Amino acid sequence: MSAVSGGKKILLATMSLGIGGAETHITELARELTARGYGVAVVSAGGVYVSDITGCGAKHYFAPLNTRRPRDMARAFVALARLMRTEKYDIVHAHARIPAFLCGLLRPLYGFRFVTTAHGVFSVRGLSKTLTNWGEKTLAVSEDIKAYLLKNYRVKSENITVTVNGVNTDRFSPEVSGKRVRHELGIPASAPVIVNVSRLDKTHSDPAAAVRALIEAAPGLARAIPELRVVIVGGGDAEYEFRETAARVNAESGREVVTLTGARTDINGFLAACDLFVGVSRAALEAAACGKPVVLAGSEGYLGVLAEDTLERAVATNFACRGYRETSAERLGEDIAEFFRDFGTPGFDARAARLGAFGRELVSSSYSVARMADDAQRVYAALDTPRRVVMSGYYGFGNAGDDAIMQAVYASITGAWANTEITVLSKNPRATRERYGCAAVNRFNPVCVFRALRRCDALVFGGGSLLQDYTSTRSLLYYLAVLSLARALRRRVMIYSNGIGPVTREKNRRRVRRAVESADIVTLRDAHSRAELVSMGVTREDITVTSDPVFTLAVPDAGERREILKSLGLDGQRPFVVISARKWGADDGFISELARFGDMVTSDLGFDVLLLPMHPSGDAAVCRALAEKMSRRTVAPTGELTLREYFGIIGEAEFAVSMRLHTLIFAARTGTPSLGIDVDPKLRAYLETLGLPSLGVPEEFDAPRALGLARGVSENRAEISDRLTRLAGEYGRRAQLDAKLLAGMPAGKKARPRRRTHSPR
Fold it and tell me: Is the pTM of this model over 0.90?
């Protein structure tokens, strides 16, 4: 291992560092890994990004890895062998077929660990398939490339990790100005501009189809859209052909419509200068990061405007449109003309801003450079000895919210801390194993719990509100016992995104204070919980407030949500609201008033009411009682729901009304407005944080007042939904920190605490 504190010595091997998506990927990965403390070097045939590599503190070495000529491959082999011998790299990470093949030949000689990244699909015929080595672990930049590896090379699924083309959201940002580029190209500030970024190289998937379609569509677009300019950025051996075509288009139009810039590295400036980006893959994500609307059009297919309804298909193909309809000048021209239909009006500006904000949030939340480096780091760690984690929480009770927490925490840990074996303490271990595919033991079997903790490296406690006596002191004592046993066994402990309180009994408050003070890492899901700990006398200053883990979960898109409703036999044609009720007290006066409110929602607002039990064993009876008291029609799902089905139902609702915290969190995650009924302090604090209406405590619930608040939410749904979507993205990013803190936890047992030699005064 390298002496560098942050990690090991890593060699990134690629063909070249010229203009291209894979080359930018490698440059950003080298920059981020270097910043994280790894000793990074890149070996390639050189190119425009070499200065970026050396400028970030990484090293660059030359080897002719960009050609299959036997003489050059022999020279590259010798250069690689010299590097392995002198630098002694811990991990070699190859990013193209030739570098991977040559590094694979050297691995038995030098013993390094070997990782590859698949950036695209390649020929699998004859010698091409023979000259391929996918290493011990493989990163694939999309799901369809993973499927290609499984089908054509029989790489084991467990050895493939799907990653992203991470975009530097500081460099590619709405804050970047395009004035310099417009001035350079002589484009007025008022002129509409389309930008395409492509590598114009015939040997790389022939970009001619997409670029030619754009140039062919340009004359008609120029006639329909005054002052329109089409700017194509990129170079290669097909560039001359396109320059000739562009010259003919410009001559026919009587002005410059199409401009080819050649290869450039200041791509962010060109994206900042445009009103619409047309293209695919990494360049499309960079444009989205700049807050620009995107039309996905490439050589391998066409999807049209990047929006909610095309997102799932775009993600599945890494924004390359593989397998979809062919890009044509006619289709592309129609979509561009429709996009610019009301250019220069407030309506156009608002629509473009919405599409731009959608793309920016998408990249920021799911396609950052940090995420890309996290994936690589996780794969590197998977080559080491596995770590064992025990998860303790309110798991296995059939509560949708707590099961969602379990899935989110499980996915976040395995995503950030590779080669991790996780065991869940569950009330129903068989159901947990069968439904979620994770190891589980009975949380109430002391022998099983002891064995799991004795074998583990760390206990992950949470999330959820576990440290509270609002439910009962017995529940609190159970969780404190698990924490005490982990401490007695000298295991690392992380209190993971917990909600604290209420803890009302003084003795219990002292117990919670001791437990929190003794944990290795403490993160909380809200500031209210930190204030509660401070009131108990907790003095540690390293407590981090993140957010609920559920905000990290992926949610179904609009098309999938509609399919979910159909599969559950629900009428997705009529608008509906969700009411999520739970048992509250012995008097059914509240249920009667809630039923009255439900009838008003149908009669006054015109919405169906869908009754959704989040904890079926306890909530289903309440929902039945509520339905019986309502005179208007209600709908309800039948059978046990999956997490995606809960998200699908709530995501399609006009708004949600809930007595359960995680109904409100599910709603925020899907951008659905909600109103809460104050059954406990954590729900009240959540409503205040998101600025959502409270319908008061059950004992004071008033149907006409609730209807007035619901009407206001419905009338302002779009505005509230946009705000919730932005907040959910921010909370998701915060929640990712929990697993990163866990991954940075020291390995090995904790030292035994010193024995006191005298009593404290």
Answer: no
